[in-house]
Amino acid sequence: MKHRKIMGGRIKKPSERGAWAELYFMVLAMTYGLKVSSPYGGFGPYDVGVENGSGPVLRTQVKCTIYQWRGHFVTNICVTAVRGNGPRRIRGYTPGTVDFFAIYLLPTDDWYIFPYSVIGNRPRLLHLYPESKRSKYNKYREAWHLLVNAAKGKADGPITIQACCDEGDAAQIAREVTERAAIRKMFRGVLQG
């Protein structure tokens, strides 16, 4: 069960909170059977490489936010470049540098998994409404299957919901859900100290 009282806990600095979100993303991706890697020193144009061992390495940019405005969460998807002593230049992510964006809403413990094609190469301010059933981004909320399918080399086509499975599959799914809940609980403990 989600713990809705997480507000950053002891992690006060945005950079530290971002590093924590990257680690949390990697742990959850591994629970889906994916392998993860990170560019050494944090100098890559993406945060985490994700693969399943037989498909492509997917470059994933991880973002996290605690910022709420008028009942929804807001996060900025952009790259800030500083040239010498000149002004900061804000731009979007260049095509071919990122395949997915994983956005974590820390207070609600929700992940949004967006393919690059949804965000595009422009700077974008995303407004996410996890409590709304009519949000245009709901189909990307907890959409880990997009990442898993892309890692297998499958296209990120339309989302399908299947309502049946055999008993063996149901038991496996129940074990995986329990494992993920335990991992989330462990990471929440780190935040609350």
Task: Compute the separation of the termini in Å.
Answer: 19 Å
From the 3D coordinates, which CATH architecture would you assign? Answer: 3-Layer(aba) Sandwich
Q: How many beta-strand runs?
A: 10
Strand-pairing-aware structural class = alpha+beta
Q: What is the CATH C-level name?
A: Alpha Beta
Mean pLDDT: 78
Give the SSE map:
Elements: H1 14-31, E1 35-37, E2 48-51, E3 58-65, E4 68-69, E5 72-77, E6 79-82, E7 88-91, E8 100-105, E9 110-115, H2 116-119, E10 124-128, H3 144-151, H4 167-192
Parallel strand pairs: 3-8
Antiparallel strand pairs: 1-2, 2-3, 4-5, 5-10, 6-7, 8-9
Write up what this structure looks like:
With 193 residues, the protein is α+β, with helices and mostly antiparallel strands. The chain has a single domain, classed as Trna Endonuclease, Chain: A, domain 1, CATH 3.40.1350.10. Helix content is 29%, strand content 25%. It is built from four helices and ten strands; from the N terminus they run αβββββββββαβαα. The strands form three sheets. A five-stranded mixed sheet has the order 1-2-3-8-9. A three-stranded antiparallel sheet has the order 4-5-10, with no helix packed on it. Strand 6 and strand 7 (88-91) form a beta hairpin. Helix 1 runs antiparallel to helix 4. The longest helix is centred in the C-terminal third of the chain and has 26 residues, at 167-192. It is globular. The two termini are 19 Å apart. The model is unreliable at 1-8 and 156-163 (pLDDT under 50).
